[in-house]
Protein backbone atom coordinates (compact mmCIF):
# COMPACT_ATOMS: atom_id res chain seq x y z
CA UNK A 1 0.00 0.00 0.00
CA UNK A 2 2.85 2.39 0.77
CA UNK A 3 4.30 2.38 -2.80
CA UNK A 4 0.81 3.08 -4.15
CA UNK A 5 0.34 5.93 -1.67
CA UNK A 6 3.73 7.39 -2.55
CA UNK A 7 2.89 7.19 -6.25
CA UNK A 8 -0.44 8.93 -5.67
CA UNK A 9 1.18 11.75 -3.68
CA UNK A 10 3.93 12.37 -6.23
CA UNK A 11 1.81 12.03 -9.41
CA UNK A 12 0.43 15.24 -10.95
CA UNK A 13 -1.25 15.84 -14.30
CA UNK A 14 -0.09 19.01 -16.04
CA UNK A 15 -2.10 21.76 -17.71
CA UNK A 16 -1.06 20.39 -21.12
CA UNK A 17 -2.83 17.10 -20.39
CA UNK A 18 -6.08 18.86 -19.47
CA UNK A 19 -5.93 20.97 -22.62
CA UNK A 20 -5.47 17.88 -24.80
CA UNK A 21 -8.20 16.08 -22.89
CA UNK A 22 -10.47 19.03 -23.63
CA UNK A 23 -9.71 18.62 -27.33
CA UNK A 24 -10.67 14.92 -27.10
CA UNK A 25 -13.95 15.79 -25.39
CA UNK A 26 -14.68 18.32 -28.11
CA UNK A 27 -14.10 15.61 -30.73
CA UNK A 28 -16.59 13.36 -28.92
CA UNK A 29 -19.16 16.15 -29.08
CA UNK A 30 -18.52 16.59 -32.79
CA UNK A 31 -18.97 12.84 -33.31
CA UNK A 32 -22.59 13.12 -32.11
CA UNK A 33 -23.24 15.80 -34.72
CA UNK A 34 -21.19 14.49 -37.62
CA UNK A 35 -21.10 10.73 -38.16
CA UNK A 36 -17.81 11.01 -40.07
CA UNK A 37 -16.11 11.84 -36.72
CA UNK A 38 -17.31 8.65 -35.00
CA UNK A 39 -13.91 6.90 -34.88
CA UNK A 40 -11.62 9.91 -34.53
CA UNK A 41 -12.34 10.68 -30.82
CA UNK A 42 -11.56 7.09 -29.77
CA UNK A 43 -8.36 7.13 -31.77
CA UNK A 44 -7.29 10.49 -30.25
CA UNK A 45 -8.18 9.31 -26.76
CA UNK A 46 -6.16 6.13 -27.20
CA UNK A 47 -3.10 8.06 -28.38
CA UNK A 48 -3.39 10.50 -25.45
CA UNK A 49 -3.60 7.69 -22.87
CA UNK A 50 -0.69 5.85 -24.48
CA UNK A 51 1.53 8.93 -24.38
CA UNK A 52 0.40 9.56 -20.78
CA UNK A 53 1.42 6.04 -19.75
CA UNK A 54 4.75 6.41 -21.54
CA UNK A 55 5.43 9.72 -19.82
CA UNK A 56 4.50 8.21 -16.45
CA UNK A 57 6.72 5.17 -17.02
CA UNK A 58 9.87 7.11 -17.91
CA UNK A 59 9.44 9.53 -14.99
CA UNK A 60 8.55 7.00 -12.29
CA UNK A 61 10.77 4.08 -13.25
CA UNK A 62 13.57 5.19 -10.88
CA UNK A 63 14.41 7.98 -8.48
CA UNK A 64 16.56 10.05 -10.77
CA UNK A 65 16.66 13.47 -9.09
CA UNK A 66 18.93 14.48 -6.22
CA UNK A 67 18.79 17.83 -4.46
CA UNK A 68 20.05 19.49 -1.30
CA UNK A 69 19.77 22.85 0.42
CA UNK A 70 23.01 24.25 1.89
CA UNK A 71 22.57 26.73 4.70
CA UNK A 72 24.92 28.23 7.25
CA UNK A 73 24.69 27.31 10.95
CA UNK A 74 23.15 30.72 11.71
CA UNK A 75 21.74 33.79 9.98
CA UNK A 76 22.63 37.45 10.39
CA UNK A 77 19.78 39.76 11.36
CA UNK A 78 19.07 42.61 8.95
CA UNK A 79 21.50 41.30 6.31
CA UNK A 80 21.14 39.39 3.06
CA UNK A 81 22.05 35.80 3.90
CA UNK A 82 22.83 33.39 1.03
CA UNK A 83 21.02 30.07 0.64
CA UNK A 84 22.36 27.50 -1.84
CA UNK A 85 20.49 24.65 -3.54
CA UNK A 86 21.96 22.10 -5.92
CA UNK A 87 19.85 19.86 -8.16
CA UNK A 88 21.19 16.90 -10.16
CA UNK A 89 19.42 15.21 -13.06
CA UNK A 90 20.21 11.49 -13.30
CA UNK A 91 17.68 10.83 -16.08
CA UNK A 92 19.13 9.91 -19.49
CA UNK A 93 17.08 12.73 -21.05
CA UNK A 94 16.53 16.44 -20.44
CA UNK A 95 13.92 17.45 -17.88
CA UNK A 96 12.23 20.63 -16.70
CA UNK A 97 12.49 21.22 -12.97
CA UNK A 98 10.52 23.47 -10.65
CA UNK A 99 12.24 23.92 -7.27
CA UNK A 100 10.02 24.87 -4.32
CA UNK A 101 11.69 25.70 -1.03
CA UNK A 102 9.63 25.85 2.15
CA UNK A 103 10.83 29.05 3.82
CA UNK A 104 10.36 29.83 7.53
CA UNK A 105 6.96 31.14 8.54
CA UNK A 106 8.48 34.51 9.55
CA UNK A 107 8.93 35.44 5.87
CA UNK A 108 5.26 34.74 5.02
CA UNK A 109 6.22 33.48 1.53
CA UNK A 110 4.31 30.46 0.22
CA UNK A 111 5.13 30.47 -3.50
CA UNK A 112 8.90 30.69 -3.53
CA UNK A 113 10.13 28.70 -6.55
CA UNK A 114 12.79 28.46 -9.27
CA UNK A 115 12.47 26.87 -12.70
CA UNK A 116 15.41 25.07 -14.30
CA UNK A 117 16.09 23.08 -17.45
CA UNK A 118 18.55 20.25 -16.85
CA UNK A 119 20.35 18.29 -19.51
CA UNK A 120 20.98 14.56 -19.07
CA UNK A 121 23.18 13.91 -16.00
CA UNK A 122 23.58 17.66 -15.44
CA UNK A 123 23.96 19.29 -12.02
CA UNK A 124 23.03 22.91 -11.44
CA UNK A 125 23.49 25.20 -8.46
CA UNK A 126 21.18 28.04 -7.63
CA UNK A 127 21.32 30.58 -4.84
CA UNK A 128 19.06 33.21 -3.37
CA UNK A 129 19.16 35.60 -0.42
CA UNK A 130 16.91 35.95 2.58
CA UNK A 131 16.82 38.95 4.92
CA UNK A 132 15.47 38.20 8.40
CA UNK A 133 14.38 41.21 10.47
CA UNK A 134 13.85 39.51 13.83
CA UNK A 135 16.15 37.45 16.01
CA UNK A 136 15.09 33.94 17.00
CA UNK A 137 14.67 30.45 15.57
CA UNK A 138 13.73 30.11 11.88
CA UNK A 139 12.48 26.68 10.76
CA UNK A 140 13.01 25.67 7.12
CA UNK A 141 10.76 22.96 5.71
CA UNK A 142 11.23 20.34 3.00
CA UNK A 143 12.67 20.88 -0.42
CA UNK A 144 10.15 20.02 -3.17
CA UNK A 145 11.23 19.25 -6.74
CA UNK A 146 8.66 18.94 -9.54
CA UNK A 147 10.02 17.20 -12.64
CA UNK A 148 8.54 16.84 -16.11
CA UNK A 149 9.90 15.40 -19.36
CA UNK A 150 9.69 16.96 -22.82
CA UNK A 151 6.21 15.41 -23.19
CA UNK A 152 4.93 17.46 -20.21
CA UNK A 153 1.76 15.48 -19.57
CA UNK A 154 2.86 14.28 -16.12
CA UNK A 155 4.79 15.97 -13.36
CA UNK A 156 6.58 13.96 -10.68
CA UNK A 157 7.11 15.44 -7.23
CA UNK A 158 10.27 14.65 -5.29
CA UNK A 159 10.35 15.57 -1.60
CA UNK A 160 13.67 15.90 0.17
CA UNK A 161 13.74 16.04 3.93
CA UNK A 162 15.54 19.35 4.43
CA UNK A 163 13.91 20.47 7.66
CA UNK A 164 16.32 22.60 9.62
CA UNK A 165 16.11 25.14 12.42
CA UNK A 166 18.51 28.05 12.17
CA UNK A 167 19.07 30.77 14.76
CA UNK A 168 19.06 34.40 13.59
CA UNK A 169 21.76 36.27 15.50
CA UNK A 170 22.57 39.99 15.68
CA UNK A 171 24.30 41.22 12.56
CA UNK A 172 27.61 39.38 12.70
CA UNK A 173 28.06 39.98 8.95
CA UNK A 174 28.10 43.73 9.62
CA UNK A 175 30.49 43.12 12.50
CA UNK A 176 32.87 41.16 10.25
CA UNK A 177 32.68 43.82 7.55
CA UNK A 178 33.74 46.53 9.99
CA UNK A 179 36.38 44.20 11.45
CA UNK A 180 37.97 43.58 8.05
CA UNK A 181 37.88 47.29 7.26
CA UNK A 182 39.53 48.08 10.59
CA UNK A 183 42.27 45.46 10.10
CA UNK A 184 43.03 46.71 6.58
CA UNK A 185 42.81 50.37 7.70
CA UNK A 186 39.93 51.05 5.27
CA UNK A 187 37.20 52.14 7.66
CA UNK A 188 37.02 55.47 5.83
CA UNK A 189 35.55 53.66 2.81
CA UNK A 190 32.34 52.89 4.73
CA UNK A 191 31.96 56.25 6.40
CA UNK A 192 34.15 55.91 9.51
CA UNK A 193 36.19 59.08 9.74
CA UNK A 194 39.91 59.25 10.37
CA UNK A 195 40.21 60.98 13.74
CA UNK A 196 43.02 63.45 14.35
CA UNK A 197 44.92 62.75 17.57
CA UNK A 198 45.06 65.58 20.08
CA UNK A 199 48.62 66.24 21.29
CA UNK A 200 51.47 63.72 21.31
CA UNK A 201 50.91 61.84 24.54
CA UNK A 202 50.51 58.50 22.77
CA UNK A 203 53.52 56.18 22.62
CA UNK A 204 55.43 55.89 19.33
CA UNK A 205 54.87 52.52 17.65
CA UNK A 206 56.30 52.40 14.12
CA UNK A 207 56.81 54.14 10.79
CA UNK A 208 54.19 53.16 8.22
CA UNK A 209 52.98 54.16 4.77
CA UNK A 210 50.73 57.21 4.60
CA UNK A 211 47.08 56.49 3.75
CA UNK A 212 44.27 58.92 2.98
CA UNK A 213 42.93 60.42 6.20
CA UNK A 214 46.16 60.21 8.23
CA UNK A 215 47.36 63.33 10.00
CA UNK A 216 49.92 64.88 7.64
CA UNK A 217 51.66 66.57 10.61
CA UNK A 218 53.06 63.17 11.58
CA UNK A 219 54.82 62.64 8.24
CA UNK A 220 58.41 61.46 8.74
CA UNK A 221 60.27 63.41 6.07
CA UNK A 222 63.59 61.57 6.51
CA UNK A 223 61.93 58.19 6.03
CA UNK A 224 59.95 59.63 3.10
CA UNK A 225 63.16 60.76 1.39
CA UNK A 226 64.77 57.35 1.84
CA UNK A 227 61.75 55.34 0.73
CA UNK A 228 60.38 57.54 -2.01
CA UNK A 229 56.83 57.26 -0.63
CA UNK A 230 55.12 59.25 2.06
CA UNK A 231 55.92 57.65 5.43
CA UNK A 232 54.19 58.42 8.70
CA UNK A 233 55.02 58.14 12.39
CA UNK A 234 52.39 55.91 13.94
CA UNK A 235 51.48 56.22 17.63
CA UNK A 236 49.80 53.71 19.89
CA UNK A 237 46.46 54.74 21.37
CA UNK A 238 45.86 54.19 25.02
CA UNK A 239 44.71 50.60 25.62
CA UNK A 240 42.63 48.66 28.11
CA UNK A 241 40.02 51.39 28.41
CA UNK A 242 36.56 50.22 29.48
CA UNK A 243 33.78 50.60 26.90
CA UNK A 244 30.19 49.71 27.81
CA UNK A 245 27.22 49.71 25.45
CA UNK A 246 23.96 50.30 27.36
CA UNK A 247 20.85 49.18 25.49
CA UNK A 248 17.44 50.58 26.34
CA UNK A 249 15.01 47.74 25.59
CA UNK A 250 11.84 49.48 26.80
CA UNK A 251 8.84 50.13 24.57
CA UNK A 252 10.47 53.25 23.08
CA UNK A 253 12.80 50.94 21.15
CA UNK A 254 10.04 48.87 19.54
CA UNK A 255 9.42 51.35 16.69
CA UNK A 256 10.14 49.72 13.30
CA UNK A 257 12.32 51.10 10.52
CA UNK A 258 12.68 49.16 7.25
CA UNK A 259 11.53 45.99 9.01
CA UNK A 260 13.96 46.10 11.94
CA UNK A 261 13.04 47.52 15.33
CA UNK A 262 15.18 50.24 16.87
CA UNK A 263 16.24 47.68 19.46
CA UNK A 264 17.70 45.45 16.74
CA UNK A 265 19.53 48.43 15.21
CA UNK A 266 21.00 49.16 18.65
CA UNK A 267 21.96 45.50 19.15
CA UNK A 268 23.67 45.33 15.74
CA UNK A 269 25.56 48.56 16.46
CA UNK A 270 26.55 47.27 19.90
CA UNK A 271 28.05 44.12 18.40
CA UNK A 272 30.05 46.05 15.78
CA UNK A 273 31.21 48.72 18.23
CA UNK A 274 32.25 46.14 20.84
CA UNK A 275 34.28 44.28 18.24
CA UNK A 276 36.02 47.48 17.09
CA UNK A 277 36.80 48.30 20.74
CA UNK A 278 38.37 44.87 21.21
CA UNK A 279 40.43 45.35 18.04
CA UNK A 280 41.65 48.63 19.56
CA UNK A 281 42.67 46.53 22.60
CA UNK A 282 40.04 48.12 24.84
CA UNK A 283 37.72 46.16 27.11
CA UNK A 284 34.09 45.88 25.97
CA UNK A 285 30.97 45.15 28.00
CA UNK A 286 27.19 45.52 27.70
CA UNK A 287 24.21 46.36 29.90
CA UNK A 288 20.56 46.08 28.90
CA UNK A 289 17.77 47.75 30.85
CA UNK A 290 14.00 48.27 30.77
CA UNK A 291 11.75 48.46 33.83
CA UNK A 292 14.25 46.14 35.50
CA UNK A 293 17.85 45.14 35.01
CA UNK A 294 18.50 42.91 32.02
CA UNK A 295 21.71 41.38 30.74
CA UNK A 296 25.10 42.37 32.10
CA UNK A 297 28.47 41.45 30.60
CA UNK A 298 31.41 43.00 32.42
CA UNK A 299 34.09 44.54 30.25
CA UNK A 300 36.89 42.24 29.14
CA UNK A 301 39.07 41.62 26.10
CA UNK A 302 39.60 37.86 26.12
CA UNK A 303 39.65 36.20 22.68
CA UNK A 304 36.23 34.59 23.17
CA UNK A 305 34.63 37.69 24.70
CA UNK A 306 32.93 38.85 21.48
CA UNK A 307 31.27 35.42 21.20
CA UNK A 308 29.91 35.83 24.72
CA UNK A 309 28.53 39.27 23.81
CA UNK A 310 26.96 37.83 20.65
CA UNK A 311 25.18 35.07 22.60
CA UNK A 312 23.83 37.53 25.18
CA UNK A 313 22.58 39.97 22.55
CA UNK A 314 20.84 37.15 20.68
CA UNK A 315 18.53 36.55 23.65
CA UNK A 316 17.55 40.18 24.25
CA UNK A 317 13.89 41.08 23.71
CA UNK A 318 11.85 44.26 23.90
CA UNK A 319 10.11 44.98 27.18
CA UNK A 320 6.85 46.89 26.80
CA UNK A 321 7.27 49.10 29.88
CA UNK A 322 9.05 52.38 30.59
CA UNK A 323 12.78 52.55 31.22
CA UNK A 324 13.71 52.57 34.90
CA UNK A 325 16.46 55.23 34.87
CA UNK A 326 16.96 54.99 38.61
CA UNK A 327 17.67 51.26 38.39
CA UNK A 328 20.07 51.93 35.51
CA UNK A 329 22.02 54.39 37.64
CA UNK A 330 22.13 51.95 40.59
CA UNK A 331 23.37 49.13 38.33
CA UNK A 332 26.13 51.27 36.86
CA UNK A 333 27.29 52.44 40.29
CA UNK A 334 27.33 48.91 41.68
CA UNK A 335 28.77 46.99 38.74
CA UNK A 336 31.14 49.40 36.97
CA UNK A 337 33.96 50.40 39.30
CA UNK A 338 36.33 51.99 36.77
CA UNK A 339 35.73 55.19 34.84
CA UNK A 340 34.37 54.02 31.49
CA UNK A 341 32.92 55.21 28.23
CA UNK A 342 29.18 54.45 28.36
CA UNK A 343 27.41 54.44 24.99
CA UNK A 344 23.71 54.62 25.84
CA UNK A 345 21.39 53.57 22.97
CA UNK A 346 17.90 54.91 23.65
CA UNK A 347 15.10 56.84 21.96
CA UNK A 348 13.60 60.17 23.07
CA UNK A 349 10.36 60.97 21.29
CA UNK A 350 9.88 64.26 23.14
CA UNK A 351 11.75 66.81 25.21
CA UNK A 352 9.69 65.95 28.28
CA UNK A 353 10.68 62.27 27.96
CA UNK A 354 14.35 63.25 27.98
CA UNK A 355 13.90 65.55 30.99
CA UNK A 356 12.41 62.70 33.02
CA UNK A 357 15.69 60.80 32.58
CA UNK A 358 18.02 63.82 32.71
CA UNK A 359 18.64 63.81 36.52
CA UNK A 360 19.94 60.24 36.37
CA UNK A 361 21.95 60.87 33.19
CA UNK A 362 23.68 63.80 34.93
CA UNK A 363 24.53 61.56 37.90
CA UNK A 364 25.99 58.91 35.59
CA UNK A 365 28.02 61.55 33.72
CA UNK A 366 29.68 62.59 37.02
CA UNK A 367 31.49 59.25 37.24
CA UNK A 368 31.77 58.14 33.60
CA UNK A 369 32.10 59.54 30.10
CA UNK A 370 28.52 59.26 28.85
CA UNK A 371 27.52 59.23 25.19
CA UNK A 372 23.76 59.23 24.55
CA UNK A 373 22.72 57.93 21.12
CA UNK A 374 19.10 58.35 20.06
CA UNK A 375 17.19 58.14 16.81
CA UNK A 376 15.91 60.59 14.26
CA UNK A 377 12.44 59.81 12.91
CA UNK A 378 13.25 59.74 9.20
CA UNK A 379 9.62 59.54 8.07
CA UNK A 380 8.85 62.80 9.86
CA UNK A 381 12.04 64.42 8.56
CA UNK A 382 11.27 63.37 4.98
CA UNK A 383 7.74 64.76 5.23
CA UNK A 384 9.23 68.27 5.52
CA UNK A 385 10.20 68.07 1.84
CA UNK A 386 6.72 67.15 0.64
CA UNK A 387 4.70 69.68 -1.32
CA UNK A 388 1.74 71.14 0.57
CA UNK A 389 -1.47 70.97 -1.48
CA UNK A 390 -4.16 71.69 1.09
CA UNK A 391 -4.74 72.82 4.66
CA UNK A 392 -4.28 69.29 6.01
CA UNK A 393 -0.81 69.06 4.44
CA UNK A 394 0.16 72.39 6.02
CA UNK A 395 -1.03 71.11 9.41
CA UNK A 396 0.98 67.88 9.16
CA UNK A 397 4.09 69.73 7.97
CA UNK A 398 3.88 72.16 10.88
CA UNK A 399 3.60 69.30 13.39
CA UNK A 400 6.55 67.54 11.70
CA UNK A 401 8.70 70.68 12.04
CA UNK A 402 7.86 70.80 15.75
CA UNK A 403 8.99 67.18 16.19
CA UNK A 404 12.25 67.77 14.30
CA UNK A 405 13.04 70.94 16.24
CA UNK A 406 12.30 69.18 19.52
CA UNK A 407 14.84 66.44 18.69
CA UNK A 408 17.46 69.11 18.00
CA UNK A 409 16.56 70.81 21.25
CA UNK A 410 17.22 67.54 23.09
CA UNK A 411 20.78 67.49 21.70
CA UNK A 412 21.39 71.08 22.80
CA UNK A 413 20.03 70.52 26.29
CA UNK A 414 22.12 67.39 26.81
CA UNK A 415 25.24 69.24 25.66
CA UNK A 416 24.46 72.08 28.08
CA UNK A 417 24.68 69.57 30.92
CA UNK A 418 28.01 68.18 29.67
CA UNK A 419 26.54 65.02 28.13
CA UNK A 420 27.72 64.15 24.64
CA UNK A 421 24.90 63.03 22.35
CA UNK A 422 24.29 61.81 18.81
CA UNK A 423 21.05 62.19 16.86
CA UNK A 424 21.25 59.65 14.05
CA UNK A 425 19.14 57.83 11.51
CA UNK A 426 18.82 54.07 12.13
CA UNK A 427 20.75 53.10 9.00
CA UNK A 428 23.72 55.29 10.03
CA UNK A 429 23.71 54.22 13.67
CA UNK A 430 26.72 51.89 13.53
CA UNK A 431 28.97 54.26 11.57
CA UNK A 432 28.08 57.26 13.74
CA UNK A 433 28.61 55.26 16.94
CA UNK A 434 32.06 54.05 15.85
CA UNK A 435 33.00 57.58 14.77
CA UNK A 436 31.97 58.93 18.18
CA UNK A 437 33.95 56.20 19.98
CA UNK A 438 37.11 56.94 17.96
CA UNK A 439 36.67 60.68 18.45
CA UNK A 440 36.26 60.38 22.23
CA UNK A 441 39.15 57.93 22.43
CA UNK A 442 41.49 60.20 20.50
CA UNK A 443 40.49 63.22 22.59
CA UNK A 444 41.79 61.37 25.69
CA UNK A 445 38.76 62.40 27.74
CA UNK A 446 38.45 58.90 29.17
TrEMBL record:
The chain crosses the membrane at residues 7-34, 40-60. GO terms for biological process: cell division. It holds the Pfam family DUF58. Keywords: Cell cycle, Cell division, Membrane, Transmembrane, Transmembrane helix. Residues 207-348 form the DUF58 domain. This is Cell division protein FtsB. The lineage of its organism: Bacteria, Pseudomonadati, Bacteroidota, Sphingobacteriia, Sphingobacteriales.
Amino acid sequence: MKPIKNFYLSFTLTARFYILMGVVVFLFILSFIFSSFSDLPYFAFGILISILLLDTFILFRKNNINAERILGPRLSNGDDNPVYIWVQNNYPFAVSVNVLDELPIQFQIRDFSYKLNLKPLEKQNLDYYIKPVKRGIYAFGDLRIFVSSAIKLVERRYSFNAEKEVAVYPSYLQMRRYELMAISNKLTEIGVKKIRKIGNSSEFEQIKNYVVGDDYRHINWKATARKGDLMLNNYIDEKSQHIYCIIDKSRNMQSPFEGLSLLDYAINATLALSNIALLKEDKAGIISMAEKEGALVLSDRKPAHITKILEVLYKEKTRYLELNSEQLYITIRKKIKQRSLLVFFTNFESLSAMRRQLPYLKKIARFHLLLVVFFENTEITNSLNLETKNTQDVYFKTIAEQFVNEKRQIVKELNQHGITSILTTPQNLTVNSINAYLRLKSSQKL
